[in-house]
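A quick aside before the break. I want you to see a complete sequence-to-structure record at least once, exactly as it would be stored in a machine-readable document. Don't worry about memorizing anything.
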Amino acid sequence: MFIINKLRKIILKVKHSIKNKAYSKSTTFFHNDVFLVEFPKSGITWLIFLIGNINLLLSKMNIKITFYNHHQFVADIHQLRGNRIDSKIIPFPPYRFIKSHEKYNKEYNFVVYLMRNPFDVMVSYYRFMKYLGYNSDFINFVKDKRYGITSWVEHVDSWLETQDDAQSFMLLKYENLKKNPKSEIEKIYNNLGIDVNNKIYQQAIKYSNFDNMKISEKYYRDTNPRYKMIFVRKGAINSKEDIMTEEIYNYIKMRAKNILEKYYPEYL
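That is the input. The structure line, written in tokens, reads:
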């Protein structure tokens, strides 16, 4: 059992190292690339579905975003095979959207940073890491400097506290996106100077809703014996209500106080 646990920890470190590796040295970035950045488990898969579906509709392509194809249309900087991302897969807009979990990177010229409150992030990230083999309890995960609240604070601060006038930056809160997806996603396209009619917004939101994403993931899981995750879910083992004790809540609140005061005062 000791050897098995040791191997799990080694695998976990390798996966985490790969996931957080900077790829700027092996990937050619273009001036007009748009980077969608988040701390893991802040809701970026949904954002990818929304943006991918909008761009496909704008391009008049008879394709929908799925769990199988979404990285064809919004590339994941951490899962590239080789160093080329095609910028012309979708005719419009004629530039690339790229997903990243990196901390601040000065090479990212245009950034949409997706932020989610740390309490929900910690629960979601813990569930995900348990699937990868993390074998400790929630309080240890939250206090783990590689994955927990310290890592979240460092990631958020690296983007929100850096002064870089040459970088075009937009903050998007997951909670606002969830409450009013049309209004929030419209802000992205308004900043990009792209006119999108309401019909396209509504169609993309429908294609990207919870039920359709769940169906897409189930189909991908049924056809891929290597895919064991249940990424799209409501309620679960290790749900927030099950594991978020008052002690852990207060610890997160203490560690993230400065960010909460500015962006999530309702949690204080």
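Two observations worth writing down. The domain at 23-267 is CATH 3.40.50.300 (Rossmann fold). The chain is about 50% helix and 10% strand. We'll return to this after the break.
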